[in-house]
Structures are given as C-alpha cells and as structure tokens.
C-alpha cells in the first residue's frame, strides 16, 4: 500500500510543529520510504524559508533543515519519484471540476491529489479538511493526521488523540 503525504504533514518531520510526533510515529509505523517529488521539495524548502522570514527560526537552523531534507532524499528516506506534469495538471483540472465547488480546495492542493492518483497511491495523508474531502472525491482513501491516534509507546490506536484545530497547526515556540 503506497501512501502520499501532503507537504503540510511532511514539514513537521523536519521542523517541530503540532503534528511532529504524530507524523513521525505514522511514518515509522508504516516502515516504508516516503514518496517524494520536486513539488514536495519546492514547497518544503519554501516553507522553511518562510519560517526564517517570519522569525520562527533563525537562518542557520533554516539552512540546516533544508540540508537535512536533501540528506533524506540522498539516503532514500524520501524516495524521489518522477511526475508526468502534463498528466498531473490535466488530472488536477478533472479533480477541480468535481471537488472545488464542494470542498473549496486550492489548485496546489489538487496537484498533490492528482500526483497521488497518478502514482496509484491508495492512501492520502493530510491535515487539511478541504484537501481531505477533495481526495475522497478523487477516489482516494485519506487519513486526517489531526485525527491520528498514537500511544506513548508509539503504538497506533485509531482516530482520536491529536484532534488539533487548523488554527492551532503552527510552529511551537523556540526555547
């Protein structure tokens, strides 16, 4: 079973955020490389640079996080796969026809869903309720990371523990 992780749940693997523990536990429990593409990399690196811009981390830490993302690609923890961009754009248009009026999904979010469909992923992982609904409308099973439940020992117990509202999904304060 292949999973597609939205960028919003990949960033917390590298930067301490509300969902960091949940996504780390999920990735470890699945015991597989995380499928990754250039779009992920662009969004992740830009998210880190935005954190520097917003003074949520200093520039040295930002550069270190970006290097760590690169190292994860190099060692295969982030398994880079190619995307047929023309087909992904066309699929995103199709998904938009079905999902935008119902889910309010943004174009870039639909691109992630289209890539997941292109890669035949059977699970889409996100913490965005609009993207979750659009993924369902595109025929994907989707896991809402906000509902992911994990025990103190790292075991999963089903939905319920994280339950963070989107407004609380931000960077934890630096100590």
Beta-strand content:
5-15%
Order of helices and strands: EHHEHHEHHEHE
What's the arrangement of strands in the largest beta sheet? 1-4-5
**End-to-end Cα distance:** 39 Å
Mean pLDDT: 86
Name the CATH class of the domain at 3-36 and 79-165.
Answer: Alpha Beta
- Indicate the CATH architecture of the domain at 3-36 and 79-165: 3-Layer(aba) Sandwich
Indicate the structural class: mainly alpha
- Count of alpha/pi helices: 7
Largest beta-sheet details: 3 strands, parallel
Q: Measured on Cα atoms, how large is the radius of gyration? A: 16 Å
**Helical amount:** 40-55%
CATH fold name of the domain at 3-36 and 79-165:
Rossmann fold
Which geometry do the CA atoms define?
globular
**Total beta-strand segments:** 5
Q: Low-confidence spans: pLDDT under 50, at least 5 residues? A: 152-175
Describe the overall structure.
By secondary structure, the chain is mainly alpha-helical. The protein has a domain at 3-36 and 79-165: 3-Layer(aba) Sandwich (Rossmann fold). 50% of the residues lie in helices and 10% in strands. The chain contains 7 helices and 5 strands, in the order βααβααβααβαβ. The chain has helices at residues 7-10, 20-30, 38-53, 59-74, 85-103, 107-118, 129-137; strands at residues 3-5, 34-36, 78-80, 123-126, 141-144. The protein has a 3-stranded parallel beta sheet. Strands 2-3 form a two-stranded parallel ribbon. Residues 152-175 have low confidence and may be disordered.
